[in-house]
Design a protein that fits this description.
This protein is of the alpha/beta class. The N and C termini lie far apart (68 Å). Helix 13 (437-453) packs parallel to helix 15 (487-505). A hairpin with an 8-residue loop joins strand 1 and strand 2 (34-39). The protein is 25% helix and 21% strand.
Length: 641
């Protein structure tokens, strides 16, 4: 990475501002003092206050250098001590601010920064992983979205009794990694970790962008968690909310008495969430955000960044009618280009609900430069379909087949994220039509079978795999007792695990996710029976998937096939071991040269109600006899039907 440059900082081309600004101990092992630097161009003056001067101003006044930068070296300051910047703002107000480049901060409600020596040289042992990781375009990418504070909670501990209500980063590592491996997840996506004041914001209203939240421990403990994930073959993605920041007085807002990081007071100053919007037209702000993204990839070895609320930056206030924010768009292109250059095979993901083109096209080709984009259209259409009474699904058949009409425009990830299981929206399984417990589970199994066999990488929020009926609450751990006490939930969890294993271990489900040769409809228009059927293919494998979205059992269902083949059922969501009724197909089903729809071959299968059947295809060479039969079988077809 290049040496820090003030010129680059002012122009918005700096990717490593954290190496210059903030509090930097001269050495880790000796008390040689600490150098403090802060950017506050409109401030009259700035003092450093902290444990080393009894929080008194006028003792360690900073020198103004390089225009807007204040600097001082304090020999008395030591690692582990608390500090703030006392900013004498333009306009005469005096405000104590946390360090915008702090590496560690106090646990809320306290807000002081902590002098920290960041050195990861002895913390990571993942050289092979870092050199060999890929963007997974033609490999499995099955993401488990996690809120660290509510996956599991320490038994009997609360803040009130002096104990921590959360596991530390390193404490949770062993159980979490074991769970991810057992359930065939390839990557962990952690909800925002940049320090934030309000638990209920889940980190999406951040205050400090170089500071992992102290809720779960120290910077070193976070490094331990990520290093252990890498040792076990699991990639780690961080959620990054950089479009807006909190309005709390100790944070970035009105930092030096001016709108230094945010837009000036106007109709674009504040977001729909009541926070300040970053002014991405300013070079200093661009350098701040770009350096923050690089910081997580550099210092903590994260494998990727999922960037929140991209549409709110593409369009003014997220409103397409207000037009494109050209400065933000240009910033995305520059940031993503630089991150790709400096961090080998890092994965950049856009959470974007707009139809803005080229989100996952390379920056060099005019795109925004993200690697993946969440397919929120697929998510909304799919869930709306499964909420419908099956009687009305025939009139909404295109809600499910429409996704493949636009799918190859971008590189999509299919998400069922935390956003879908909060705020009265109901959990995924609760969204399923009907009030019958068995029907909801059956439909949920087919929903996930459809999701995991659909082209595109996958993301699921924690708890989806348990069939939780309770909406997510950041104050409570997941309902682990469901799989311990209730057979149907355990069976559903088993199904989810087996499904994840199937799609991550068979190349047909990931090798050609973004290649039109990897998918083909068998029948996308059967709205009368509410059945969808399609192929998934790789160079070496072919699978057939049949989804029944109706409560009707179909026996002797004729399935069109392009090849003369044998079908082997490898997963049936109606199997008794998954909580179904146990209506299965024969171990092997041979096709016949009997045309069906636009195919020359077909096979008779059984499709249970609300079920998905997944077949592996073994092709057979056509014989002269089979070719002859295919030309003279019209009467046979009529008789069998």
């Amino acid at each position: 990475m290049s040496i820090f440059s003030m010129d680059d900082f002012y122009k918005g081309d700096c990717i490593n501002a954290y190496k210059y600004f903030g509090a930097h101990p001269v050495s880790k092992d000796r008390d040689d003092g600490v150098v403090f630097r802060v950017y506050a161009p409109a401030a009259y003056c700035v003092d450093v206050i902290g444990d080393f001067n009894n929080w008194q101003g006028n003792i360690h006044r900073m020198n103004k250098i390089n225009g807007g930068v204040f600097e001082v070296c304090i020999p008395e300051a030591k690692i582990g001590q608390l500090y703030k910047f006392r900013v004498y703002q333009k306009g005469g107000k005096i405000v104590d601010k946390a360090d915008p480049y702090a590496f560690h901060n106090e646990l809320r409600p306290n807000t002081a920064s902590i002098i920290t020596y960041i050195d990861n040289s002895n913390m990571f042992h993942d050289e092979d992983w870092m050199s060999e990781r890929t963007k997974c375009f033609d490999e499995p990418l099955n993401i488990y979205e996690l809120h660290l504070g509510s996956w599991r909670k320490p038994a009997g501990k609360t803040e009130a009794d002096g104990g921590s209500q959360w596991y530390r980063y390193d404490e949770i590592a062993n159980d979490l990694i074991k769970y991810l491996k057992e359930n065939h997840y390839t990557h962990l996506e952690i909800m925002p970790l940049a320090e934030y004041p309000f638990d209920g914001s889940w980190g999406y209203q951040s205050a400090l962008y170089f500071c992992p939240t102290s809720r779960y421990g120290t910077p070193e403990q976070l490094m331990i968690l990520i290093d252990r994930c890498h040792k076990n073959g699991i990639g780690v993605i961080i959620d990054f909310a950089f479009v807006h920041f909190v309005k709390d007085s100790y944070s970035l807002g009105n930092f030096d008495g001016t709108a230094l990081y945010e837009y000036p007071t106007s109709d674009v100053n504040q977001s729909e969430w009541g926070s300040y919007n970053f002014n991405l037209s300013k070079g200093e702000v661009q350098s701040y955000i770009m350096s923050s993204a690089a910081f997580w990839l550099d210092v903590y070895h994260f494998d990727g960044i999922r960037m929140d609320a991209i549409s709110n930056a593409i369009y003014w206030m997220g409103d397409k009618n207000r037009g494109v924010n050209d400065r933000s768009v240009q910033f995305f292109k520059k940031m993503n280009y630089n991150l790709h250059i400096h961090f080998k095979n890092c994965i950049l993901i856009a959470e974007d609900s707009s139809d803005y083109p080229g989100v996952t096209a390379p920056s060099e080709m005019g795109g925004l430069g993200f690697d993946y984009k969440w397919d929120l259209g697929w998510m909304n259409d799919t869930l709306e379909y499964f909420k419908l009474d099956p009687f009305f699904r025939k009139d909404n058949h295109n809600k499910l087949n429409w996704s493949m009409a636009y799918f190859y425009n971008e590189k999509y990830i299919l998400p069922f994220s935390h956003d879908e299981v909060v705020h009265g929206k109901a959990t995924i399984i609760q969204k399923m039509w009907g009030d019958n417990y068995d029907n909801k589970f059956a439909q949920a199994r087919t929903l996930y079978a459809y999701m995991f066999t659909h082209p595109g990488k996958k993301l699921n929020f924690m708890g989806n795999e348990l069939g939780m009926f309770r909406e997510w609450d950041e104050n409570k751990e997941m309902d682990w007792s469901l799989i311990e006490r209730y057979p149907k939930h355990k069976a559903f969890h088993d199904f989810f695990r087996e499904l994840c294993g199937l799609v991550t271990q068979n190349s047909a489900f990931y090798e050609k996710d973004y290649d039109k040769d990897g998918f083909m409809w068998i029948d996308a228009t059967n709205n009368v029976q509410n059945i969808y059927s399609y192929y998934r293919m790789s160079e070496k494998q072919t699978f057939v998937i049949v989804c029944n979205m109706s409560p009707v059992l179909f026996e002797n269902f004729r399935l069109g096939l392009r090849e003369n083949c044998t079908l082997t059922e490898v997963l049936n969501s109606d199997a008794q071991c998954y909580g179904g009724t146990g209506i299965l197909n024969k171990p092997r089903i041979k096709s016949a040269p009997i045309p069906e729809k636009h195919f020359n071959n077909s096979a008779l299968i059984t499709i249970p109600p609300f079920a998905t059947c997944i077949f592996k295809v073994k092709e057979k060479p056509l014989t002269k006899t089979s070719v002859k039969k295919s030309k003279t079988n019209k009467q046979t077809v009529k008789a069998e039907k």
